[in-house]
User: Fold this.
Amino acid sequence: MVNHIAVIGSGTMGRGVAYTAALAGFSVTLQDIRLEAIEQAKSYIDRQLDKSVKKGYIRAEQRDAARNHLSYTTQMHEAVAKTDLVIEAVLEMMELKINIFQQLDEWAPSHAILATNTSTMSPTEIAASTKRPGQCVAMHFFNPAHRMKLIEIIRGLDTSDETVEVVKQVAEKMGKETVEVNEFPGFVTSRMNCLIGNEAMNMLMEGVASAEDIDKALKLGLNHPMGPLELADLVGLDSRLRNMEYLYHHLGEKYRPSPLLVKYVKARRLGKKSGQGFYSYTI
Assistant:
């Protein structure tokens, strides 16, 4: 049974997962190696809780309970010492994830499940760095984590049925729907989403239409809730480029990153988080 969840990485996805888990009644520790990042995450979560009360999404008692469920630290061994489930939410870099999983394997209790929030990478390769591959799995949350209803659950080669069942129960308690995916680069959603977004970037580069009209066409013509360029800005163009490069390496030419995406990342136009991407933002 999962009572405590440790979330590793306090960026956009990590703080969103921590917020969601705390509201669902789990005891949560959010960890990041940078104190500044932890302080920013705590401030963000506090603002979101207050905003949700004001908008009537949650009651004041739920907000207060969620705050009581949350703790913050810069020490990984402290975050995972008594946990039942770890959800890693760091950058999409295989070497970094493997390094973290090796530390988690050493410090987390023997019964703990180790999950990665990767959107494209191999949970089998990540799990192979541990002594508990049967207890390793991918839980792919979507941004913003507290609103998006889906979690992709991706089995590695050695992931046990028991591990899958436990994380499904956790997802259900968080109010999420799940799909179970057998490992393959990009899983289901990222393979499709990256293709659509990359083609939208190529069309913008070719002058087919403006960013606004490309997004409007997909929202009104294909019933997408967000346009592909809006979504890329939300995810972060640097994150999208890493995903595209990984898929290009493993799946071939159709995933070659758009030259426009590469150019924007070089210019540090990273989307909403930097204030400039395909659109401009106030930060």
Remarks:
- Residues 16 and 145 are 5 Å apart (CA to CA).
